[in-house]
Specification:
The chain is an alpha+beta fold and 176 residues long. It has one domain: L-fuculose-1-phosphate Aldolase. Helices cover 32% and strands 21% of the residues. The strands form two sheets. A five-stranded mixed β-sheet has the order 3-7-6-5-4, sandwiched between helices. The chain has a two-stranded antiparallel ribbon with strand order 1-2. Helix 3 links the parallel strand 5 and strand 6. Helix 2 packs across helix 4. The protein binds zinc ion. The site of zinc ion has 5 residues, from loops.
Length: 176
Amino acid sequence: MRLDAQHAAVTISGRDKGQLGSDDIMVVDLDGRALDPQLRPSAETALHTQIYRRFAAAGAVLHTHSRAQSVASRLFAARGVVRFEGWELQKAIAGYSSHDSVLELPVFANSQDMAVLARAVDGWLDAGRPLHGYLIDGHGIYTWGKDMPEARRHLEALQFLLECELDLIRLRGTRP
Ligand SMILES: [Zn+2]
């Protein structure tokens, strides 16, 4: 979560994400540097701080690795984007008021080098394309919101939409 214009709270590296308490959280600046040099932030901190830097209104960033996110990222990696059209739940994403819209969720190639991943995100944003979240191939999803409730709503909506797309592919027997 963003704390102020210069700082965010992130997870300490290596902690069990299913058992997080306040002792598992630390403060970094928006370049990912720890305020307490004894603590090492989560490996993907640079991707979180990138969102806070690029979106002044972002108050919370969430990253998860669900099965649907992972499978969809593989299926849509070649196309580079999942396009949601016609789903009522697209309205759960801030700024979308109708099913009659197109919501794009890009899929970026995975890398263990966060600078490479951050460049892919920058490339999308610098092209002026709307961005509310993204998949990383074979890995998971990032999404965010103005506060934690909105970030959670976006995560739940994108998870639901990805599950729906996967169901359609399965039922129709088509490939994306
Ligand atoms: Zn991850």
